Amino acid sequence: HLRAARAGAWVELDGIAEDSRDTHVTAVMDLAHAGYLERVLISQDAGWYHVGEPAGGRFRPYTFLFDGFLPALRRAGFGEADVRTLLVDNPARLLSGLD
Hints:
There is one protein chain. The protein contains 4 helices and 2 strands. By secondary structure, the protein is mainly alpha-helical. It has a domain at about 1-60. It has a two-stranded parallel ribbon. Helix 2 (about 20-35) packs across helix 3. The longest helix has 17 residues, at about 80-95. It is globular and about 45 Å long. The model has no long low-confidence stretch (mean pLDDT about 90).
């Protein structure tokens, strides 16, 4: 992740879920401490259906990013400005094509 950010790429951390929360928190924190928070995008996979598993497998809630991941980032020292950077500023900058 750091090598990509150093090269000027956006770093997209996808698949954030309960079982990957700590790994993703560490990745975001590492990028932030290295000065690349403004290059990070986050997302989760929600819903999910596994053919062949009872009831389609374990359902991933649509709210985990807000109910599970962001509280973990805050406990790790992220402030509201950092959260806004991840949720609002970075996606807006990428989608506007201004970066």
